[in-house]
Each structure stands twice: as structure tokens, then as C-alpha cells.
Predict the structure.
Amino acid sequence: MKKILQTALTVIVILINGQSTATRFFYELTYKPNKDSAKLEKEMMVLDIDQNRSLYQSYKNIQIDSIASVMIKESSNTGFPDFKKIGNRRTQFTHQISKRYPIREVLYKDHISMDYYSYRENPELVWKISDEKQKIGTYNAQKAIADFAGRKWIAWFTTEIPFPDGPYKFYGLPGLIVKVGDEAGNYSWELKGNGKIDQIAEASFVEGLMSKTGLFVSKEITKEKFTEKYEQYKKDPLAGMKQMLGQIPSDVKLSDEFSLSKEMRAAEKQMKENLARNNNSIELPGRNK
């Protein structure tokens, strides 16, 4: 009875407060970054939900953006941002996924090189709900199965939190998805907790700052075009940086100890190695359903 009352109160508070407050659901993502390796890694993701929409992203994205905001403000006095404050906060998941209620599509946004792009998609998730039930964390959950993007996904949803939503692009079940993973064990999200936040941010501080400079693109395109641009990025990950550096006046002098071409080659090598190590994408290439 206590658990039912807690759940009911959580939902009532969300509905009453509307856009003024939101609930942040924390999902632990366990994933296999390399398709040829059995090694698994973990990262905390968040799904922010209010009365009208949801926003999914890596929790590290939020932390980095918050630190960047402080760094930029402090740099107005010191003259240069202290990048050491970011520390080892790095993520392989820089994308954000928005859903508007009632959900008819998802808006996927990510940066490719120096630019931000987004695309809209209806994942066409056709769930087969099973009679099988089990306890996932503190919630009574029910099983559902769907094929999406070349993988078979097994989800567990709870009607105790009546939002037809879930992490990543998953949605469309009669309750919040508390656990979902593909049958082969490449990716799995599990709800670990929740808390209140003031509101869902429309855009990150870094994205807004970059847009104001006029040097970076922020554009909505098709998913096909997005995939094409990402494939080009993998072949030449520093193309955008090279273009920017090409705009530096020829009379600008650099330190004799600094070799720009050497630094660029080293950075390009490191980026290509990282892309090669993380070659097991959530969605299989060429498989939209």
C-alpha cells in the first residue's frame, strides 16, 4: 500500500506542476562498445519527463555542460577557460532525443564534428505484449518484444508509472519502460532511480554558445542525410577543424615549438582509433526496422 501511494503521489505532482517541474529518471546503460569484443561498459543516462514532453541524454552531457557554463563565465576574468575542470568526464553518447506528448515521432539531435544536426523519425515500434511479469527493481513489470533497427528488443514496462515512454527511442507501451535490452546483449538500459528537476532545458549552454559564434551549423536534416554526414566524418574526423584553421590569416605566427600539422595528425589518429574501438552502434547500419 505504501508503494502504491508513493507512486500515485509522484505522478500527481508531475501532472499538477506541469512545465514548472519535471522528473528525472536515471537509467544505467550497459553496452558492448566493440562488436568483436565481449567487454561491457556502463554509463548513466537520464530521461527527463514533464507533462508535455521528455528529453533523453547521457548524464555526463549534463555535467559537462554545467561545468562549461561555469568555465566560460570564469574565463571572462581569467582570459582563458580552465579545461582541467572537465576532468575525465567523457561520453560516447553525445546525442539527445526529444519526444512530445502524445508521442508520434522522436527528434534525434547530435553534433558531427563541429556542427549540430537533428532529424525526425517515427521508429515504428510494434510491441508484442506478453503475459510474463516480474519485479524490476521496486516495480511490478510486464514483458514486451519488438524488432527495431536490426535488433530484437525485450522490454519491461510498469503501469505504476503511466507514461508511455522509455530511454533512447523506445516508447509506446502502457507504462514507463523500466528495462530494455537487445536479445544478443549488446545494449541494455535499467531504471535505477528518479528525482525532481526544475524544468527540461530547451538547449544546452554549449550548443547555444556555439550557435552565437556563427561558425557552427545547427540544422534539421533527414536521417539519411545525417547518416551520410556521419560516414563522411568517420573518414575524415577533422574536416571541420581543417576548414576553420584554413581561415586563420597567413601572417599569424605560432610558437616555433608548436607544429600544427603534427598535432593535427596525432589528433586525427587518436579519433580514428576511438571510432574503430567503438564500432557497435545501437542501430545496425542500413536496418531501420
Remarks:
- The two ends are 41 Å apart (CA to CA).
